[in-house]
TrEMBL record:
Its main location: cytoplasm. It catalyses: a 4-O-methyl-thymidine in DNA + L-cysteinyl-[protein] = a thymidine in DNA + S-methyl-L-cysteinyl-[protein]; a 6-O-methyl-2'-deoxyguanosine in DNA + L-cysteinyl-[protein] = S-methyl-L-cysteinyl-[protein] + a 2'-deoxyguanosine in DNA. InterPro entries: MethylDNA_cys_MeTrfase_DNA-bd (IPR014048), MethylDNA_cys_MeTrfase_DNAb (IPR036217), MethylG_MeTrfase_N (IPR008332), MGMT (IPR023546), MGMT_N_sf (IPR036631), WH-like_DNA-bd_sf (IPR036388). It comes from Streptantibioticus parmotrematis. This enzyme catalyzes only one turnover and therefore is not strictly catalytic. According to one definition, an enzyme is a biocatalyst that acts repeatedly and over many reaction cycles. It is found in: Cytoplasm. Residues 85-166 form the Methylated-DNA-[protein]-cysteine S-methyltransferase DNA binding domain. Coiled coil: none annotated. It comes from the Bacteria. Residues 3-77 form the Methylguanine DNA methyltransferase ribonuclease-like domain. This is Methylated-DNA--protein-cysteine methyltransferase. Keywords: Cytoplasm, DNA damage, DNA repair, Methyltransferase, Transferase. The active site is at 137 (nucleophile). HAMAP family: OGT.
Length: 172
């Protein structure tokens, strides 16, 4: 069974989708987190029989609220893992990036044992990450330190990195 709910956040309304899991204590594992009304990252194809159920997703909603309030640095949730073996290696590397830090695409390639020439493939795998915020792809920056390649928009990436203390707020 698949369930969904929406969450108000500083990034905009988020769409959280969960799938029933035998290992989540009879609960639901997070299948995706995306912007609810934004073309990129596109909300996942939600099955027609999905039901709206905020109670079933109460724990991820609570942890996200804690994160946005600055009270959580690490998520303790079960995720469904779908993707190629290469994508899964990249996504595991993302999950190891500590809160408040950044790494480059090249560093991710190195961490997974891929050649430097694989940086574009690493970027594509990061762009296919279905777990906005939860799997911290926003912590990956360009080799020259610039903010690049965030499907939810660079202004959201900047907000997240500033929120985590990895960037200083910009004065406008």
């Amino acid at each position: 069974m698949t369930v969904r709910t929406t969450i108000d956040s500083p990034l905009g309304e988020l769409l959280l989708v969960g799938e029933e899991s035998a290992t989540a204590n009879g609960g639901f594992a997070v299948a995706s987190l995306s912007l609810a009304d934004h073309a990129t990252p596109a909300p996942p194809a939600v099955p027609a029989d999905v039901r709206r159920d905020a109670d079933a997703l109460a724990e991820p909603v609570r942890q996200l609220a804690d994160y946005f309030r600055g009270e959580r640095r690490v998520f303790d949730l079960e995720y469904t893992v779908t993707g190629t073996a290469f994508r899964q290696r990249v996504w595991r590397a993302l999950e190891e990036i500590p809160y408040g830090t950044t790494v480059t695409y090249g560093e991710i390639a190195e961490r997974i044992g891929a050649p430097r020439a694989a940086v574009r493939s690493v970027g594509a795998a990061i762009g296919a990450n279905p777990l906005l915020v939860l799997r911290p792809c926003h912590r990956v920056i360009g080799a020259d330190g610039t903010l690049t390649g965030y499907a939810a928009g660079l202004e959201r990436k900047e907000w997240l990195l500033t929120h985590e203390g990895a960037l200083q707020p910009t004065l406008v």
